[in-house]
């Protein structure tokens, strides 16, 4: 923990020029005194090889990298490829996690000493060890630019989020292009508001007509599409904002929708218009997220059906009056067509602004979570919430507090030594010291503790945690202000800053808790906000902003998080890479923990987990009560969270954040324009600062399947190809009859008290060829139906229908009689059909075939609980048993069921593709430009879990 004490060396006076001589004395919380964090873990060497699955080309290879044994293969691969510095194959190249963490942490420690933060060397030592321990154990991570730049010979850029400004002059517009380029080069993204640029309906001083902001967007878009962000493979990320009262607002709103129509026309003509395709570069405005900045006046006019004035930029005269509802509907229609524009709620944003005397907030970073002054930046860090869940399923709020205090201290120190792409950004950031602490794994935490994401209980937990995080951050900021002084712009904004702190405190006081977990967290949050008000009155604050909720794409994988940012879980079944180079599919490891928390027995939990492994969802899972379905709702699938569920979760967290939330509200393809308009309207009413939507399949440049890419060729487009004559060949199945004498087995069974017999006959080569079922009295309707069913199945088998197909169709079929059976391998069945085909699978399918269906014998399940594998010991050794361990580092609670682990389908390379293979549902997301796999949503961007690349957010 940390406390303020009196320094004796006076360094704060010398460095900061302020008459203060107190400093931080830090005592260990996470690390062990006298033991270096590295000595507490087991290290192993790994070869990191990354290929593009389409071409087979090795895009990266580094052998012998060193990582803790509990880090997943995915985490070590992403960290090696993204964050290790130095040229490959040279002595300058980093070879292990120790070097990476030391490079960053030692830089932070030295700056903390140089700038007078620590009371003594011992406190500096503890600070270094505490940060190292938390990073090593994946408790938190700094944003990507820190890992890219800190401790290297490159400029020490630590910020991921930038806001620029542009005025109504050619010099300013060209300077905008240049500044964006430098930011993109450094691996970050930028946003700005173009509303100062006069519209195309206004005159220039020379007498000509102005071009308008939309025309200048073309040049910036082309620049962004050319520069590789941070020298890596992804393109730049940017946000363009226009005020709703700008005369060119309709052109701005419809710009990307028109381009999407162009994409469709070119695609239909045979051009390659996939994301990353060779012809997509001819389309404009594809490198930016667009947002409309709406005012309360406009939104009230929409509600009341009134007109709204569009005003000139030069003299504020009314150029045009439009119907507010019609304009709002156009915004919704464009978002329906192409997911742009999003909405930013201007009055809400500026009502929570701590520095209004300096200037208004006019824009955001590309992902919409950082909102502050023009020409400013923010560095981010995110905590892994699941790490603070104890063995007894309580949230360790005390350790969470202590972690937040330490991380905020480190983030503020980074501004002391950081470099910035422009002097104006550097000056504003040093004067206001904006920080962006946040978290990841909220969705996993809620599931593990038995809370539905779209539930009052889930929202209460999220609100309490967010309130505690921001309250502790500002309390520490006030403590730091007492050591090294408040931020330079505080004096002129003191009243406004303290007013916003009281607004946060009031929101915390009105938070409604529902359970012991959120009640305990809320009590600590209340105490933290009390400290904020008291200390802030005396010391002021070190930081103008403290918290945001970022996408946590790449760093989320670095921390082995199941869920990113504020998002729910993507799916219940995950794709997992193995040390030996193979892969497997596993059921989300938080599910067994959730089932135990909800009170399910081991036997029932096991059946539920097996059902999820096969189906990818929980609907009709054996023994699972329908009222618990909501706990397992996900972003995709049969029980996908409804759009307003996402909006309500954002509203639960927003009052406790300095900035905003990076999140896209996903809607099904069938969603209407009116539904999108309602989401935007409710976002305003619920007090959000920004909102973006995405309707499935609304964009052509985001392929639905990899097969689409496979069809590409260098041949002429299909639209102009020569017609070909194709001979149609019709194949007919042939029945393979059983011999007169064939082996068979008879099985007696009892399901839910109903007794029967099954006789199964097979071919001499052991393939199943017939099934006869005896159930009910001879001559009864039931007996006749079962005879007919037996004949139909038998004929199908003899015509070549695979038994696996029947098992897939009839297992888990639910009807009475159902319940306990007398079969030790199948203790519970949902119906007679469910039992029959599970039994046939056990009798006639190979282990690998059954494993893909999630069907195991009692002995195999027992072996899995003991060894972590269903296979016998000798088989495990053959397929590299070490790879089957839980290399994510978190123990699976086998008391409440197990995480089913089976070989992943051959065509799956990520969780998105695995989800498609299991459910048959398409994931509407782009393919990764680096490794070719399908990405998945992360905040308002996309992230590749194969290589860590993102579509824009670090």
Automatic annotation (TrEMBL):
Q: Which reaction does it catalyse?
A: a 2'-deoxyribonucleoside 5'-diphosphate + [thioredoxin]-disulfide + H2O = a ribonucleoside 5'-diphosphate + [thioredoxin]-dithiol
Q: Name one Pfam family in it.
A: TSCPD
Question: What EC number(s) would the UniProt record show?
Answer: 1.17.4.1
Q: Report the GO molecular function annotations.
A: cobalamin binding; cobalt ion binding; nucleotide binding; ribonucleoside-diphosphate reductase activity, thioredoxin disulfide as acceptor
Q: List required co-factors.
A: adenosylcob(III)alamin
Q: Keyword Transmembrane helix, does the record have it?
A: no
Limits of the TSCPD domain:
739-843
Please give the function described in this protein's UniProt entry.
Catalyzes the reduction of ribonucleotides to deoxyribonucleotides. May function to provide a pool of deoxyribonucleotide precursors for DNA repair during oxygen limitation and/or for immediate growth after restoration of oxygen.
Give the family from UniProt. Belongs to the ribonucleoside diphosphate reductase class-2 family.
Name used for this protein in its record: Vitamin B12-dependent ribonucleotide reductase
- Organism per entry: Microlunatus phosphovorus (strain ATCC 700054 / DSM 10555 / JCM 9379 / NBRC 101784 / NCIMB 13414 / VKM Ac-1990 / NM-1)
| Gene name for this UniProt entry | nrdJ
């Amino acid at each position: 923990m940390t406390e303020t004490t009196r320094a004796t060396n006076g360094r704060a006076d010398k460095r900061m020029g302020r008459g203060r001589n107190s400093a931080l004395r830090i005592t260990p919380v996470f690390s062990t005194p006298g033991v270096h964090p590295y000595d507490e873990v087991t290290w192993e060497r790994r070869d990191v090889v990354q290929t593009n699955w389409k071409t087979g080309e090795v895009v990266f290879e580094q052998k012998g990298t060193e990582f803790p044994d509990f880090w997943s293969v995915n985490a070590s691969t992403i960290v090696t490829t993204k964050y290790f510095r130095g040229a490959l194959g040279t002595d300058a190249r980093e070879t292990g996690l120790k070097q990476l963490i030391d490079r960053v942490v030692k830089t932070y420690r030295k700056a903390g000493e140089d700038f007078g933060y620590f009371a003594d060397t011992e406190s500096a030592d503890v600070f270094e060890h505490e940060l190292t321990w938390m990073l090593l154990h994946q408790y938190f991570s700094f944003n990507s630019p820190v890992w890219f730049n800190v401790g290297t010979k490159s400029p020490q850029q630590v910020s991921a989020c930038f806001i620029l400004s542009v005025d109504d002059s050619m010099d300013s517009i060209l300077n905008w292009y240049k500044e964006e380029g430098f930011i993109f080069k450094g691996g970050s993204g930028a946003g700005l508001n173009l509303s100062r640029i006069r519209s195309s309906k206004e005159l220039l001083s020379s007498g000509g007509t102005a071009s308008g902001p939309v025309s200048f967007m073309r040049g910036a878009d082309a620049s962004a599409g050319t520069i590789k962000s941070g020298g890596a493979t992804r393109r730049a990320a940017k946000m363009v904002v226009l005020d709703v009262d700008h005369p060119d607002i309709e052109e701005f709103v419809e710009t990307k929708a028109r381009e999407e129509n162009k994409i469709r026309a070119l695609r239909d003509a045979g051009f390659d218009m996939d994301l990353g395709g060779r012809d997509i570069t001819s389309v404009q405005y594809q490198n930016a997220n667009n947002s409309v900045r709406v005012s309360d006046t406009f939104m009230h006019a929409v509600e009341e059906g009134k007109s709204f004035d569009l005003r000139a930029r030069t003299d504020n005269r009314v150029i045009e009056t439009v119907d507010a509802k019609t304009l709002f509907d156009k915004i919704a229609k464009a978002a329906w067509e192409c997911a742009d524009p999003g909405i930013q709620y201007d009055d809400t944003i500026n009502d929570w602004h701590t520095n209004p005397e300096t200037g208004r907030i006019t824009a955001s970073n590309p992902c919409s979570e950082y909102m502050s002054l023009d020409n400013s930046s923010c560095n981010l860090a995110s905590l892994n919430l699941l790490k603070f869940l104890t063995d007894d399923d309580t949230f360790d709020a005390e350790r969470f507090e202590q972690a937040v205090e330490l991380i905020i201290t480190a983030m503020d120190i980074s501004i002391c030594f950081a470099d910035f792409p422009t002097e104006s950004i550097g000056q504003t950031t040093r004067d206001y010291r904006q920080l962006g602490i946040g978290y990841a794994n909220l969705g996993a935490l809620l599931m593990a503790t038995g809370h539905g994401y779209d539930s009052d209980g889930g929202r209460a937990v999220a609100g309490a945690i967010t309130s505690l995080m921001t309250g502790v951050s500002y309390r520490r900021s006030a403590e730091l202000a007492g050591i090294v002084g408040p931020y330079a712009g505080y004096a002129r904004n003191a009243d406004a800053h303290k007013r916003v702190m009281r607004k946060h405190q009031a929101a915390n006081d009105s938070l409604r808790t529902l359970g012991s977990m959120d009640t305990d967290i809320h009590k600590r949050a209340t105490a933290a906000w009390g400290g904020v008000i008291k200390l802030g009155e005396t010391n002021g604050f070190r930081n103008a902003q403290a918290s945001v909720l970022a996408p946590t794409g790449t760093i989320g994988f670095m921390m082995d998080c199941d869920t990113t940012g504020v998002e729910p879980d993507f799916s219940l079944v995950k794709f997992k890479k193995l040390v030996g180079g193979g892969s497997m599919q596993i059921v989300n490891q938080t599910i067994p923990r959730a089932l135990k928390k909800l009170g399910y027995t081991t036997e029932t939990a096991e059946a539920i987990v097996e059902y999820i492994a096969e189906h990818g969802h929980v609907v009709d899972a054996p023994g699972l009560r329908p009222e618990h379905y909501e706990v397992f709702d996900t972003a995709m699938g049969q029980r996908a969270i409804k759009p307003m569920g996402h909006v309500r979760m954002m509203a639960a967290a927003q009052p406790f954040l300095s900035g905003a939330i990076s999140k896209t509200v996903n809607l099904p393809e069938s969603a209407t324009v009116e539904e999108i308009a309602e989401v935007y309207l409710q976002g305003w009413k619920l007090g959000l600062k920004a909102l973006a939507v995405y309707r499935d399949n609304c964009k052509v440049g985001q392929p639905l399947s990899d097969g689409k890419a496979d069809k590409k060729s260098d041949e002429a487009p299909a639209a102009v190809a020569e017609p070909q004559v194709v001979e149609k060949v019709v194949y007919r199945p042939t029945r393979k009859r059983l011999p007169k004498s064939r082996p068979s087995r008879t099985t007696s069974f009892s399901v839910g008290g109903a007794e029967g017999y099954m006789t199964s006959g097979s071919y001499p080569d052991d393939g199943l060829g017939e099934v006869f079922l005896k159930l009910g009295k001879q001559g009864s309707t039931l007996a006749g139906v079962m005879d007919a069913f037996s004949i139909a199945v038998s004929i199908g088998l003899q015509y070549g229908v695979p038994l696996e197909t029947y098992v897939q169709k009839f297992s888990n079929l639910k009807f009475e009689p159902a319940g306990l059976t007398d079969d030790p391998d199948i203790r519970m069945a949902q119906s007679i059909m469910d039992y029959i085909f599970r039994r046939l699978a056990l009798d006639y399918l190979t282990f690998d075939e059954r494993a893909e269906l999630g069907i195991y014998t009692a002995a195999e399940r027992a072996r899995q609980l003991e060894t972590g594998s269903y296979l016998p010991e000798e088989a495990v050794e053959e397929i590299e048993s070490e790879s089957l361990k839980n290399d994510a580092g978190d123990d699976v609670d086998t008391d409440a069921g197990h995480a089913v682990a089976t070989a992943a389908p051959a065509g799956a390379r990520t969780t998105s593709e695995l989800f498609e293979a299991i459910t048959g549902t398409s994931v509407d997301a782009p393919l990764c430009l680096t490794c070719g796999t399908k990405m998945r949503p992360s905040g308002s961007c996309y992230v590749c879990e194969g290589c860590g690349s993102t579509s824009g957010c670090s």
